[in-house]
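To start, one record:
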Amino acid sequence: MKTLEQERSNYAFECVSKIKGKPFEKDASSLISKLGTLILTNGLGNTLAFLFAKGKDHHLEVIAIISNWLFRQKGQKEPGFKRDNVKVKIEEIMRELVLNATVEQYMYYTDETLRLVNWLRRFSDAMLESGGENEQG
């Protein structure tokens, strides 16, 4: 049996491992390093909307990572969000995590995302090349 923190760190490690070697590795590393600040400054909903609006591979990858984790926390075993399909699932993601969420649920999703981002940032700093494009929220 694993703690939630162990599950979170394992999931983050797997996600960062899958990014390593991809053409968007540097951009993903840059985005992950700023993601916590984006969420704290703008909120989870605005940050997800920003990532959808930008829509490059590294933005979509991060949306898939966050969405898969949060939908798993909601009890869905295999949410199936991927970089390639996440843009067509914008309505499902935004309705479930932002638009139809209660205040308590939204706060939980935000807190859980920040905890996940903390692990993503740690592994990204250790495993990915840095120096990608700058992100501004």
Q: What stands out?
A: The mean pLDDT is 95. DSSP finds six helices and no strands in the chain.
